Amino acid sequence: MKNLLLVFVGGGFGSVLRYIIGKYLNNSENGIPYGTFLANILGSLLIGFILGYALKNNSLSSNQTVLLATGFCGGFTTFSTFAYENHLFLKSGDFTSFAIYTIASFVLGFLAVFLGMFLAK
Asked: How confident is the model at residue 59 (pLDDT cuts 50, 70, 90)?
């Protein structure tokens, strides 16, 4: 039950921060979802750092890891919005934006996790 509360609190903070970033950076005029992209890349960097730090130093308790990695990062990053935005690109026939957004998100997301883990060590 305690872990559920930690995920709930961390996810709430992460979701609110993602909403704020999306509100200011997602552009409805040209459809470029910079806010979602930034949240997903920063979240990838952060989870890599948190888990790398936890593994290296054994200094984060399991409660802190659940709060930060599962809760906050889980609420901050968003695969569902990413998938929906790609659906919109495909629906509008914007295959170039679809390809760039998808490839950049995956490549930079993976690199950000590795960078976060490297920085923690």
From this structure: confident
Residues 120, 27: Cα–Cα separation, whole Å: 33
Q: How many CB atoms lie within 10 A of CB 50?
A: 22
Question: Hey, what are 77's tokens?
Answer: 């990053």
What is the spatial distance between Cα 109 and Cα 115, in angstroms, rounded to a whole number? 10
Of the candidates 101, 41, 52, the one whose C-alpha atom is nearest the C-alpha of residue 76 is 41
- pTM for the whole thing? 0.91
Question: Cα–Cα distance between 21 and 16 in angstroms, integer?
Answer: 9
CB neighbours of residue 37 within 10 Å: 21
pLDDT at 63 over 90: yes
Q: Is 48 helix (H, G, I), strand (E, B) or coil?
A: helix
| Token pair in block for residue 93 | 């026939």
Q: State residue 58's pLDDT score.
A: 85
